[in-house]
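User: Okay, second chain of the day. Same drill as before: sequence in, structure tokens out.
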Amino acid sequence: MLPRERIFKTLDRQEPDIVPWGEHWIDYNVYESILGRETFVHAKMKETKAWWEGKDKEIIESYKQDVVDLVEALDLDMVTVELFPFSQYVLVGQRGSDGFQKPMKQLDQNTYQDRDGSIWHVSVVTHDLMPYWMNPETYNPPTLESIERAIGEIDRNGVKMPEDWQWELIRHVVKKMKSTHFITCLAEDIDFPSFGQTDEEFYLNLALHPEMHAKLAELAGKRAVGMLKYYAEEGIDGLIPCADYGSSIGLLASPKIFIEHVFPWLKAYCDEAHKLNMKVLKHCCGKTWEIFEYFIKAGYDAYESIQSTAGMDIKLLKEQYGHKMTLWGGVSNENLIGGKPKDIEADAQYAIKWTAPGGGFIYGASHSLAVGTSVENLIAMKHSREKFGSYPIQV
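Assistant: Same drill. Structure tokens below.
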């Protein structure tokens, strides 16, 4: 059975020949460990500096070669792609008239200052360039009038198609692998309707400005839905919208706000994607039991980032929702980074035993193959799928 056939069969909650394996995100260290060469794929600060230095072609070619090669090396069934430069969120709006990214000013080995005077640090854990202090004098919060103008612009002219160069990875992978593999793309999503320079401001403003909820949700919803036609035209099989609604202890905001303002747009998103013959595989971290039934009602085909450390037991999810939605995950990030191969095998055995029978299960990490994932544990993850994942399941 071809890899793409496994995914489609699983999304229809039928049993393929072996549980399919996919990951929504894989960090650069995994690429380098498995392929035995340096990469720019999700290479954190290394990739950021390369954009600053105008190495656009090298970055894009690295993605095109390494994404394909890693899928083949690990025997993944799903290929996850993205628009450039999706992973470099700190660079949005920093592209100059010459096409190159504008570098931040380096203050010390791990500290940088952007053009607005804000300070950024390189994380010693994730290796990402992260905000440390954001200059409040440069931030202009939205108003109801500005939001309504933006909505009106979309109503009149639609959502602008990303530039041609941004599609290079997607077009390369679709052309090379669509006949054999399921192609997913990281995509826009509808978050809680708020605004702010920092996460703290974002959630404070969510509470302080309820009058803006409806319009902010409408703007995000119309932007996300408006992009769908472009993905469909490129031949994408499935989309991975990535807004998180939960933390490790519960929802990040009131379920009432989610149900009233976010959910209607999630449903509109899924309805439109399905009309365009694309599946929707929702990424969402954290403890989301309070709103999980709304993921079903929205029409998601699969749910990914099942965080066991937040109380999201994949066995219980299967029992309650497995007849309506495919579940994707199983091997905890904590064990991939800090555990031993025996821990990986135990995670895999548990997930496959309780979730794979009857179909509707995609094997993968509980979040991603992140910085710190050891080669030994990744190999154990691959071998565990082969050991336990053949149908009929006999664990």
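The first helix runs from residue 3 to 11.

User: Thanks, on to the next one.
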